[in-house]
Each structure stands twice: as C-alpha cells, then as structure tokens.
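Standup notes
- DV: blocked on the single-chain target, sequence here:
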Amino acid sequence: MTKTLKGIAASDGIGIARAYCLVAPDLSFQTKTIADSASEVKRLEQALQAATSDLTQIRDKTLANLGQDEAAVFEAHMAILADPDMVGQIKELITTKMINAEAALQTVTDQFITIFDGMTDNPYMQERSADVKDVTKRVLSHLLNRPLPDPALIDEPVIIVAHDLTPSETAQMNRQFVKGFLTDLGGRTSHSAIMSRTLEIPAVVGTENATQEITTGMSLIVDGLDGLALVTPTATELAQFKHQAQEFVQERATWQKLRRVPTVSQDGKHVVLAANVGTPDDSNGAVAAGAEAIGLFRTEFLYMNSDQLPSEDAQFVAYKKVVMAMHGKPVVIRTMDIGGDKPLTYLPLPKEMNPFLGYRAIRISLDRQEIFRTQLRALIRAANYGEIRIMFPMIATLDEFRAAKQIFNEEQQRLVASGVSVAKKIQLGMMVEIPAAAISADQFAKEVDFFSIGTNDLIQYTFAADRGNEHVSYLYQPYNPTLLRLIQHVITAAHKEGKSVAMCGEMAGDRLAAPLLLGMGLDEFSMSATSILRVRSQMKQLKTTDWAKIANQAIQHCQTNQEVKQLVERHLQA
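- DV (later): unblocked, structure below
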C-alpha cells in the first residue's frame, strides 16, 4: 500500500527511483581478546586497503566534478591512512595487548584526536581531529562489514533519503544518478534545499520521519512541485507521475527559449531577474541561465575556502572575474557576512549564546576595520571593469550604514591619492534583513543607493524562529501578512526617494510569492540561477495591475500565512 509523506517543496521537479538511505550504520563494537595477532593485523591491513580504495574513488570523482580544492580533503584522508606512525602503533597494540583490530584502531586514533583537539592555538591542526574521526569511521566500517553510505560512489538511479544533508555530501552527488532528495529536516532556505535547486534535483525536505519510514531499495516518488513523497507507489501512480515528470521536462525546455529576453509582465512592466552566486565561476552559470544581473555575490566563500584572510589582490582578481563575466550587467557584491552559521577557523570569534544575533557581518567589519578596508579597496579597484554595487549586510541602525560609508569614502580617496583609477560612481546599498531596518526604511532610503531585502533572515528575525530548527519550522511564513506589510513598507519608502528595491532571499524565486512581490512594486528579484527562467515564464502571464490589487487584499484583509497562500493559489488558477 502506498504511504504518502508530506514535507516542504524545496526544488522543482519529479524524481522516480529506488531509495538510497544515507544513514550512518551502527559502528559500535566490543573489545575482545584474540588468539592470532598475525591474522588480526592482516584483517586491519585489508580494512586500510579497502578504505584507501574508497577514498581514491571519491577523490577522483570529486576532482572531476568540483575541482582540486575539494578533492584535497580526500587526499588528506588517504595520507592519514598511510601514516606509518599511526598504523604502526595500531599494529603494535594488536600484537602486545592481543586485542581485536577495532579496539586497537579506536584506542590509537582517540589518542591522536585528543592531541589535535588540545591544540587550541593552532586551528589548522585542530581541524585534523575531524579528519582522523572520518578516517576511523571508514576503517571501522570495513572491519565490521557495515558499509558507509558514500554518495560519490552511487552508480545507478536513486533518490537520496537522509535525516539531513551537508553541503559536502550534496556536492559529491552525481546528477546523472541522483534523481531526488528526501530529508527529515530542513526548509526552503536550508543548505540542502539551496544546493538541490543549484543542481536542479527535485527535493522535498522537512518530512520529519522519512528515514524511519523508508529503507534502501524501496520504490519512491519525490514530488518537488507539491512537497510530497510516495513510498512504494502503485503502477497507476507511477504512470501518472512519469507523465507529470515528462510534462515538467517539456516545460523546462520551453523556458530555455526565454534566456535572452527581458523579463516583462503581461501588461508591460519590466523587472530585473538576477542570480545569487557564491563563487566567481558561478557567474558563468548565471549568464547561461539568463540572469540580467548578479543580485548577490556572497563574498564570505572567499574567506571560508581559505586557511587565511584573503589578500586585497586575491579578492580583486575574484571580483574582477565576476564583473567581467557579466559583460556590463550590474553585479551586487555583499561585503563579508561571516559569523552565525559561517565561522572562520583562522578568525576565532567569541562563543555566543545566540550567534545569529551576535558578533557577525557588518558588526565584525566595523570592529575589525583592517579586514573591511582590505575588502573595500579590492572592490573599488574591480569596479573599473564593470558595474559593481556594494552592499552592507546586517545593518540595524543608520549609524552603522554611515560608518561603513565613511570607511568606503576614506579608502576610495586613498586609492585616488595613490594614483589608482577609480570608477566615477559606485552605488552603496544595504541588506534589509533586520526588522528595525525595515521599519526605519523611510530614514535609510534618504541615504542608501538601493535596498536588497534578505528574506531568509528577515523572516526568522520577524517571527523569532531559527530557520534551521525543525521544531519551529512552521514559523517560516513568507506569505504572512505581517511580513508582507514590512516588505511593502520598504518598497514604498524606497520609491518615495527614487531608490530601487531588490530581494535576494529565497522568497524572490517562490512561485506564490513572486506574483505578490510584482504587485507590490519590487524592482529586482534575485534567486538561484536555476529558478530564473521559470520565474520569467511566470511573469509573462501576470498583470501588474491585477496583482497590485491582490497584494493589497492579502495585506489588508488576510490574517494568516495560509489565507494568503489560498488567495494566491485561487487567482493563479483562475
């Protein structure tokens, strides 16, 4: 009998395949006395060889799919397995204590982990602790004959079922074989959801119990359009969803014809559809997807993918590459948004009860000005090669924006004084993601060049609900009239001063939110590149005048998130 699981539609499309449960096996064991140390050492050597073979395959696939930097992680793991000191100690323990390989392995690697964990003044060496833990787990899995799930080694069509997915797990997956994601945890703004949209893999997240209801090999359908998963579907259901999947593929092919056309509503209103990107190379994908701008370049990845603060020249090269790839189209670059869920190992931050509400983003930049000034100089220099707009994150007060602008002006003047060519005009804007900033939009609008509404954080701060916490995920309410009022206030305040408003949160690419935002007068929608053509196609069918009335109705007369959803669905189907 078919079982239906409900979750959150995180990535469009329909996936049909057998389940591959990405759940770690039980690697517990008992310490045992052995009679034959030679055969136990041989068993260890076979497990080490098998683990090395696994890592070689994973490294090679990662190198081919993602590049040298990501593959280097697995090179490091292979080096640990080949370390004569560690392996020698494990063998010695087996032969002198006459204990099983599992116990000897765990004892020795625990000692290494303790040593690395204790190197508090050396973050790089502390990180090696995690590497040793991963390697130990892999060798144990072979000793116990309990295979680890390895997404990089998948070689047949599957739907990944997991409690949650880390970015590294998602990055290892081959789109040729992975037909869908299904997770217990997560929302539309979780890492796994964002990655699934980037990879164009259908996904349903936040089911709460997928891993309890599904075992590897079960037949599955993941409906990323309606947020459903069907476990052991009937032949009739399989035929129905295969037909829907084919229709969606055909629809996506139709969208491709819109790559080089502007985004215009049915009644002639032009809006900008932009892409959110995290690396310089992502800009090529944005251009291929038909982006009219880069609405958000997340510079923190330049810091996170390094073992030290990136230099001015290194940043300049990255920013120049992005802006040149866009061939004159605007590129909005957000200054360093470190802290919260994005720490840096080489830049220790204080332990905080509420890091999302603490020392992060512009707060670090204004406090650690040497880091901020280096980034601003690189941005100012790169603005000679295209239209760069600089955006400050996590602004709460006018004083913060004014301080950031003052530092920008100082660095610009210093570059001019030193003979460096500087663009005539570089727009300075801010993220609107703190409710206080949204409420004070009329004041900010007099001083900024533009706003970009970051709804991922604005929603969690407005409803006091951590977007990564499944227990309060019901409070992620992008259609709630309270949030819509805040957004409308920001747009009205900006337009009154002749300033533009973008949105770079996930709400910008949402099928139900986009018509409301169009009606509210949003100027720019920035989203995952893979959502651009779908939204452009949708915009062609909408009348701005009609949706202005519907948006006003949602704000003035609806009381709940669900009421707004129903209102929008009703008008979209009319």
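- Follow-up: The longest strand covers residues 14-21.
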